[in-house]
Amino acid sequence: MNQNSKQPNPDVIIIGAGIIGLSIAYHILKLDPQCSIIVLEKEKLLGLGSTGTCTGGIRYQFTSPLLRNLSLQSRDFFLNFETVFDVPCWYRERGYLMLASQESIWSELKNTAEQAKIEGIPVNLFSQADLEKNFPYLQQGRYLGGTLGKWDAYADPYAVLVALYAWVRRRGVTVSFEQEVTKIITQGDSIQGVETTKGTICSPKVVNASGPFAAGLAATAGIKLPVQPFRRQVYVCTNPKDVPPAAPLIVDLASGFYLHQEASGKTILLGGTDNDTRPGMKETIDKSLAEDFFLAAMEAIPSALNIKWLRTYTGIREQTGDFHPILGEVPELRGFFAASGLSGHGFMHAPAIGRILADQILKGSSAEVDSVLLFSKRFSRGSLSEALVF
Ligand SMILES: Cc1cc2nc3c(=O)[nH]c(=O)nc-3n(C[C@H](O)[C@H](O)[C@H](O)COP(=O)(O)OP(=O)(O)OC[C@H]3O[C@@H](n4cnc5c(N)ncnc54)[C@H](O)[C@@H]3O)c2cc1C
Fold first, then answer.
1. Is the Cβ atom of 43 under 6 angstroms away from ligand 1?
2. What stretches of the chain show up as alpha helix (H) in DSSP?
């Protein structure tokens, strides 16, 4: 190990100052205020990773009970956010309206609503007639039914990121920008630290919270992390005239199309039909997708025909094959922790993931996590096999 440019050695190194890395730092300090932590971030500024492009949806309607549970565990964080951090994150419970145009999806939606209700999650069912009465801007006759999760919400990811950053900084965490981790250093089956563009840092505990870069980083220690990055394209548009600014987030489950009202009420974010693009880190906008996309938009909401397309941006998010995260200590490498594969849920689940990882790092286990999400259990048994609809 090159010790020439040695930096102070903290109790925990966290790689990545995205929502996950900072949530882990926050939850570690809540458990142990004396723990010394350094967060290493390759970029110059906060929010240049996935978190900066995240649209800020929070939902409880998942077919997977494990994902519903992560949402439930995160709920108090968002409800108490303003009291704890003394800044707003523009949290607003507008609901997600999940729409089914096929019998199989409608049946899955009803099933999920039933399960969610048993867990105390409020979800309302809408028949075709109810939908047409309550949401007249939807394509008449297209949907067999829909569900509205009353707790499903929006919040501002950047506001949460900055609040976490300020909170951990005030409590002594070093967040070092423009310091890229280039290699995970190991000795036998234990972690030793990391090599960075500014020298070597040693620590018995290193957390990989590098988002879409996680698999590449793990590979420098010979660890295979089964996550892949995918580009997602978001269309910023003017509001369709008949969709009120307080409308819920609308998702057409057959096409994947979603409509998300921005906090200002003046613009909307549209997206969701590019789920079958190939994995990769390319962030360039693919204009060839636009025609099919706007056709899908008009199939859901006919007045989308007259909206103004203002701009498009892309973001990268990382996924596992089953859309569930990989959490906890890597079995082959003591002291190396994964917080990866957050898919399209990393913002809403960041509070739960932060707490679970803090427990794992400080206590060696967490009562709050189903063991199937843990690195070791998950991959020794094979990936989750349930067919996820959403
Ligand atoms: C378009 C889009 C919309 C989304 N919408 C939602 C949504 O509505 N709700 C939701 O919950 N989730 C959503 N997501 C997913 C969510 O954004 C992510 O799951 C979440 O931001 C992941 O956070 P992270 O901290 O793991 O990753 P990031 O925010 O990417 O943070 C990782 C950080 O690690 C840094 N890094 C990487 N490699 C290194 C290295 N070698 N050394 C040092 N630093 C490094 C990166 O620069 C980055 O800052 C969306 C994602 C996209 C792309």
1. yes
2. 19-31, 50-53, 65-79, 81-85, 103-118, 128-134, 157-170, 214-219, 290-300, 346-363, 375-381
Domain hosting 216: range is 12-53+158-227+322-381
Enumerate residue ranges in the chain where pLDDT < 70.
Answer: 1-7, 376-389
- For the record, the structure tokens of 46 come out as 């906060």
With a 6 Å cutoff on the Cβ, whether 180 touches ligand 1 is yes
Q: What is the DSSP letter of 4?
A: T
CATH code at position 331? 3.50.50.60
Give the per-residue pLDDT at 3. 41
55 touches ligand 1 (CB under 6 Å): yes
Q: 285 CA to middle of ligand 1, Å?
A: 18
> Ligand 1 centroid to 164 CA: how many Å?
15
Whether 132 and 237 map to the same domain: the answer is: yes
316-325 pLDDT tens trace: 999 998 889 9
Query: Would you say residue 74 lies in a domain?
Result: no
Q: Residue 80 domain-assigned?
A: no
Q: Which of 50, 108, 68, 383 is nearest to 230 (CA)?
A: 50
How many domains does the structure of the chain reveal?
2
Both 348 and 235 in one domain: the answer is: no
Probe ligand 1: pick from 15, 50, 208, max atoms within 8 Å of CB?
Answer: 50
Is 235 in the same domain as 376?
Answer: no
Give the pLDDT confidence score for residue 382 in this predicted structure.
Answer: 56
